[in-house]
Design goal:
The protein is mainly α. It is 44% helix and 4% strand.
């Protein structure tokens, strides 16, 4: 059995974990690399932090063939954890549009 101590993470870190888990292009390996949580631990965090309906929707998406959530299913290797279309943030201010 996996034991997760969610109180080891700040609220901001938990928000980031949830955000990364929702993103289709962020593999579980990236979450593990940054926060030390394996896929089963991420699932437990999501189950505890989300409403039941939101958790079920997320699990359905992950299980329904979103092959980008697992590095082994990807056709290319990940070098960095940032989308190429994501804007750069400079000086702690989001770039103006």
């Amino acid at each position: 059995m996996i034991i997760i101590h969610e109180n080891e993470f700040t609220e901001r870190q938990l928000d980031r974990i949830i955000e990364m888990a929702w993103e289709d292009r962020t593999p579980f390996e990236a979450i593990e690399y940054q926060f030390g949580l394996a896929e089963k631990e991420v699932i437990k965090v999501m189950r505890n932090q989300l409403k039941e309906s939101s958790f079920k929707r997320w699990r359905k998406r992950v299980n329904s063939g979103v092959s980008t959530k697992h590095l082994k299913k990807r056709s290319q290797e990940i070098i960095r954890f940032k989308c190429s279309r994501q804007r750069a943030i400079t000086g702690n201010k989001i770039s103006k549009r």
